């Protein structure tokens, strides 16, 4: 079992590092090709926050384990709202612009609700996956449209230097990072499934491990943004990640390997929707998430862990 624990840790570390490098290469290549910063911010960086979830869920679905694939999505959605925003709220009161709550917040909530409706049936088909992916296309169009009028800070994008002479190198780095991401996902899932079989873990608890693990980039970004006082980035990161998870990741997994989702269960689906609603109410009132509210969100994460066990 110790070898499998090493697989889990190594898989998570390589997955996170490789996914981050993949996004960096994509941004640099896009800048050299004169792609609009709007497209880079809304699509490339937005997609990048969900690369680990995409990789893990796609590999799991390909292995015929759609329940683990979607448990990973649900777990990541819950962890982003309760753990990531909870930690952010404890570190610094998260101020939330009304426009972000009104637009990106409602888009995220709608995405989560659509996924919840499909999961509630107890199975997911390729038709359901196609619906989610079509909704993802619509969400991308909205994000692009909104980004053109957004006054969100672009300091992180501006800090990334792109050199035309290094495009080929960045392509090689990007391909290598993509391959490493897929391999790391397989290593992670092998370790999680082996440990699960040996000590009798449920699919939900295995989803908790992978879901929280793939949410570590969002958590680390939250801590870094809180230190710099860029609280808009924290909320935007979570909203974008949950939208991509609910529509893109779940849709892709369903297209690869549809099947039963009964193991996820109504309590977990309700918690995913409920935590998104509660976080939205917290953000809407006085347009901030206070430290007390951050603590309440962390308590919600504790409820999730209890339900998974």
List keywords for this structure.
A middle domain of Talin 1, two-stranded antiparallel ribbon, about 5% strand, globular, about 300 residues, 4 strands, mainly alpha
Short description:
This protein has 309 residues and is mostly helical. It has 13 helices and 4 strands.
Q: What can you tell me about this protein's structure?
A:
With 309 residues, the chain is mostly helical. The two termini are 19 Å apart. It has one domain: Up-down Bundle (A middle domain of Talin 1), CATH 1.20.1420. Helix 12 (265-284) packs antiparallel against helix 13. The radius of gyration is 18 Å and the shape is globular. It contains 13 helices and 4 strands.
> Would you state the CATH class?
Mainly Alpha
CATH fold description: A middle domain of Talin 1
Q: In the CATH classification, which architecture applies?
A: Up-down Bundle
Task: Give me the CATH superfamily.
Answer: NCX, central ion-binding region
Category by helix and strand content: mainly alpha
Report the C-alpha radius of gyration, rounded: 18 Å
> What sequence of helices (H) and strands (E) makes up the elements?
HHHHEHEHHHHHHEHEH
Count every beta strand, where a strand is a DSSP E run of 2 or more residues: 4
The overall pLDDT, averaged over residues, is 84
Largest sheet: 2 strands, antiparallel
- The end-to-end distance, rounded to whole angstroms, is 19 Å
Number of helices: 13
- Which strand order spans the largest sheet, edge to edge or round the barrel? 1-4
| Overall number of domains | 1
Indicate the low-confidence ranges by residue numbers.
none
Percent helix range: over 70%
Strand content: under 5%
Globular, elongated, flat, extended or rod-shaped: what is the shape?
A: globular
